Amino acid sequence: MSSELRNISRITGIILIMAALVSLVAGCSGTTGASPLAPQARLRVATTTSLYDTGLWGYLEPRFEEEYGVELDVMYAGTGKALELGRRGDVDVIAVHSRAQELQFVADGYGVERVPFAYNYFLVVGPASDPAGIKGMTPEDAFRKLMAAGGGTFVSRGDDSGTHVKEKAIWKNAGFEYGGVQKAGDWYIEAGSGMGPTLNIASEKQAYTLSDMGTYLAYKGKLGLVPIVDKGAILLNVYSAIAVNPEKVPVKNLDTASNLIDFLTSPEIQKLIGDYGVGEYGLQLFTPCAGNEPTD
Amino acid sequence: MELWNGLVKAIELIVSLDPEVMQIAGRSLRLAVTSALLASVICLPLGSIIHFNRFRGKRLVISLIQTFYSVPTVVVGLFVFVFLSRAGPLGGLEILYTPTAIIIGQMLLIVPILLGLTISALSGVDRTILDTARSLGASGVQMAVLVVKEARFAVMAAVVMGFGRAISEIGISLMVGGNIRGFTRVITTAISLESSKGDIELSLALGIILIFIALVVNIVMNRIQQR
Fold it and tell me: How far apart are CA B167 and CA A274, in angstroms?
């Protein structure tokens, strides 16, 4: 037998034996397949972390699933990432809070329509001792003083989320280029995390941070942070839902996506959103606004 | 004592077979076992082919395989994401953010380890045994059977090792699974989410289960290697 032939027969033998071994192992271990449902039976929504961290989606999800018989996959991502997932067609609906970016998203044809469904306010929270002495100021003045006086640490979301975009808008209104703020010093920390984790970091470091009201109230019990700045027109925080447009992006679930948006703006669910967390936190986390743009 | 209270509650969750903990742990186990088995189906024959053949660049191939032993999970995650995203080349399959995507990612992650360790296992077979067999007139097939027989425990250890890496990774599960509750949430992603939310009991319970699985894997490996 030539060496080449011998090699080939060897290999064939080995493969057969290995295959037998593997099928034996596979057979013993029983059913191991993870059979996902067909994608048609699922609706995927990317939601801003502030809505996720308050537990609102966990509360609404089973209601929607029961009413429409659809598996709702809720993914949490900052507004920037949620919009990107929408543009890529990896989600069917986005629930976000950054008006200018949302309008752009719809104008570019990626979104069908921007439907506001709830709002609350942002606030700057920080340690009760208020080391920078900014309590009660307007957001813009507070940021100016943080920059000028030092003495206070500020934790930024740093993740291109709606809250982060709002923070950048406040810096801009206060007269600072954001690039300069990022390099302003050790007192400015970029967390690169969701709202809940960022609040935890601020609490650990006894620092200030910008938060939405809902997540702050939901986390308040675990934090050593108090409201510092909570008045100013710029602090309005509107949550909208947008169905991804199948004419621009290859998504297939527009009907179900529209159902989700109708669901969110239905009187019954609007009432649930308005009541959500009131019993637990003593304050309203979200004010429902069924499809209308709230004005301050 | 946060840690102590957390630990007590964690053990309660495990002992009472809390449905959420069991579901997440079961999913982790199922996905990692599937990945390890599928990777074995690819790697055991392929590893044998590489081992039993002489070809140019064989050393290079083996060192390349070994380089990928320590490929970061997030890099594999990113790679799979780019391919499976609807905007990507395999977007039409619609498997991003499903358990299937996690299995694909974990397979890619552990294929180099399984392949490399299979080759080492086959190389580790004592030459004198083969020489003896040949001198007794064994045919090619008989020789191959002999090698596989001799190497079987080391090969099994390689599979167990791959399983261990698959079940303990987080980058892939997070990036291509999406940590969707009740669908793609696994032990590691749940720990990451729950601890960032400040709920440490569930994290600790899952962490204990993961360590327990690691322990079992280790015991099995030792048993296999002692034979």
Answer: 41
Q: Which residues pair with A288 in a beta bridge?
A: A118
B20: which residues sit within 8 A by CB, 6+ positions away?
B202
The runs of H, that is alpha helices, within chain B are 2-15, 19-52, 58-67, 73-84, 99-123, 127-135, 140-168, 171-172, 187-196, 200-226
For B2-226, CATH number? 1.10.3720.10
User: How many angstroms separate the CA atoms of B177 and B188, rounded?
Assistant: 12
Higher pLDDT residue, B179 or B196?
B179
| Contact at CB, A88 and B85, closer than 8 angstroms | yes
For domain A121-235, is the CATH number 3.40.190.10? yes
DSSP string over B145-202: HHHHHHHHHHHHHHHHHHHHHHHH--HHIIIIITT-TTTT--HHHHHHHHHHTT-HHH
Is the CB of A14 less than 8 angstroms away from the CB of B144? yes
CATH topology of domain A39-120+237-288: D-Maltodextrin-Binding Protein; domain 2 (3.40.190)
Residues of B in contact with A1 (CB under 8 A): 140
CA distance B149 to chain A (A): 10
Closest CA to B162 of B118, B209, B219: B118
Q: Based on the number of CB atoms within 10 Å of its own CB, is B61 exposed (0-12), middle (13-18) or buried (19 or more)? A: middle
pLDDT digits (tens, 9 = 90+) for A158-199: 998 999 999 999 999 999 999 999 999 899 999 988 899 899
**Chain B contacts of A93, Cβ < 8 Å?**
none
Kindly give, in sequence order, each residue whose CB lies less than 8 Å from that of residue A278, ignoring residues fewer than 6 positions away: A284, A285
Distance from CA of B52 to the nearest CA of A (A): 7
Which of A15, A89, A250 has the CB atom closest to B48's CB atom? A15
Interchain contact, A53 vs B152, CB within 8 Å: no
> Contact B143/A33, CB-based, under 8 Å?
no
Q: Which of A4, A5, A6, A22 to mutate to test the interface with B (most CBs of B within 10 A)?
A: A22
- Min Cα separation A110/chain B (Å): 13
CB contact under 8 A, B30 and A34: yes
Query: What number of CA atoms fall less than 13 Å from residue B37's CA on the CB side?
Result: 21
Shortest Cα–Cα distance, B61 to chain A (Å): 18
pTM: 0.80
- Give pLDDT tens digits for A19-45: 555 544 444 443 333 344 444 478 999
Contact assessment for residue B86 and residue B17, using Cβ atoms and an 8 Å cutoff: no
Give the Cα separation of B24 and B71 in Å (integer).
Answer: 26
Reference A8, options B58, B48, B152; nearest CA is: B48
Measuring CA to CA, how many Å separate A238 from each of A121, A173, A259, A282, A287? 8, 19, 21, 21, 9
Cα-only R_g, chain A: 25
